[in-house]
Amino acid sequence: MPNSATPTHCPYCALQCGMNLTPLQDGGVAVVERPDFPVNKGALCGKGRTAPAVLASSVRLTSPLVRSGGTLVPATWEEALDRIAEGLGRTRTEHGPDACGVFGGGGLTNEKAYSLGKFARIVLGTSQIDYNGRFCMSSAAAAGIKAFGLDRGLPFPLEDIPKTGCVILVGSNPAETMPPSLRYFTELRENGGTLIVVDPRRTRTAEQADLHLMPRPGTDLALALGLLHLVVAEGRVDEEYVQERTAGWEDARAAAMAHWPEYVERITGVSVPQLREAVRLFCEPEHAMVLTARGPEQQSKGTDTVGAWINLCLATGRAGRPLSGYGCLTGQGNGQGGREHGQKADQLPGYRKLDDPAARRHVAEVWGVDPDSLPGPGRSAYELLDALGTDIRALLLMASNPVVSAPHAAHIEERIKSLDFLAVCDVVLSETAALADVVLPVTQWAEETGTTTNLEGRVLLRRRAISPPEGVRSDLEVMHELAARLGGEKGLEAGLEKGFPTDPEEVFEELRRASEGGPADYSGITYRRLAEENGVFWPCPAAAEAHPGTPRLFLDRFATPDGRARFAAVSHRAIAEEPDEEYPVLLTTGRVVAQYQSGAQTRRVEELNAAAPGPFVELHPRLAARLGAAEGDPVAVVSRRGRAVAPARITTGIRPDTVFMPFHWPGEGRANTLTNPALDPTSRMPEFKACAVRVEAVKS
Asked: In terms of C-beta density within 10 A (0-12 exposed, 13-18 middle, 19 or more buried), how is residue 450 classed?
């Protein structure tokens, strides 16, 4: 490796793959392998390899923009910052603090996420802050906290997966969403273990499975309950473990026994022999895991669904033991850290609860404010976006593109347009930024130092490799400058901006103190340790001697008051919107390998666009035949909320009663125009993964 190479991490998914950046003569950087990082061992997907393309000035913002005469025009930083301060300050004065909203992103570093939550609560004084990570793994987080007392994506490192005996992978397609992780499942099978994939589509991941279960979208809860029923009926419950390490088994068992195999087959479409085979493969090895992703989680019953899969682990003694357990495959690059440190509407740094008096006192002391001055919990992400233009009159938005990514997206676009004032900080002029009154161009991954927390709970150090283009500043600088302008308006002491340092390591040192003693305790982690140790797993409390971090959770006890895991007594219920005569088909959504999230960045990379140039509708040949649609023909997918048109992609690898659309594109193929914003009552997760639609051939 050349001496000038900078070790860092990919800006995209939650694997946070390690890479090295080497300088080029034109001032850019090239990605080269970094085999010493244990998560990906040098392997990168196409998105990671091409990530430097978005650093180019030709595809990104390099000057602040302000709206003048209906058009965004270049402006100075001083003018742009003054306009934001004036817009937010006027709204706060005229309508109260909660008329100001803040919406963040799961791609922000821990330092920026921490500062954004602090900014919302002590500068604006608003409770109205949430982030797009709510749309990622909030249902798994809620279920994990209920069951284990603690939420961390994976409670064990990825390296444990090839060593277990069986993995049930529910609603996840890592071959396309995080390709370097697929090797863990390949190694699992090479070592004699088995892979069960639960997905209504025969994805690239499902093609690798020993057993592929294809349930009807929205029936994962019934499937998990049916498997647990068979575990009981076949005498496979680990009675000693259940007695010693769990609580609530009797009620959970009673609920599961109401879901006998033939009943579950009728609901899910998964045959009884397949159900029995799944139980055999899962229970016969000494060790086994269940891993969930957005499929079961992005439902209006997502928390209960994940709880049912956790029940399967608990009943068979597969949680809190080596090489076994339940885990969630986080999606966004810093979706885990983004909520741990204050972007989520009900949380304070360290994964503390905002309505906990002790948590408020601790964080308020670090921030130097009165605990009573901190606002209470606010609205969840969709509810916040839905309130724009009514209760919330002004919005500061960072690193998110809800015009494409939010459910019922056309409605959210109208809510955004109805705001009195919108300010956006982003790398590119996204579809949402194009609607703003002020747009600020900010630094991105290779141009800044900061930490992220990957899907294993491994805190990592991204390092600055190059300088940003002239005219671009960091989000930390933005909050520093806005705090200076808005602090005086609020009547606070002069110098409020001093509480918003621009140096990321200084912010991290404060984050360490704020998280100390909390569930997500980072107090024993330093930049030096992160650089020397290839990351540190939280919790890592400060100690007289350096705490090693915690790669594996729950081996001795769970994080509940009595140390026992809790079963969830849950029963199957229908999705919020079942098919009917008018809308007889189910729509499910997801990603493709060459694009990422709303596509705001990846759609600007030539190589990725060539591989995935636009949206499509995946449908079964029988459905295509009824429509008279051939491969590539335009078809319209219509729901109660909107209409999207894209070319047909005909395959036997999807259920005949289901269609699939990726959600990366705006325009007439915008999949989230169709999706249902029905919310899980606990996690407030929208039901992205199942809604009723009809499919129509589009006449030329």
From this structure: buried
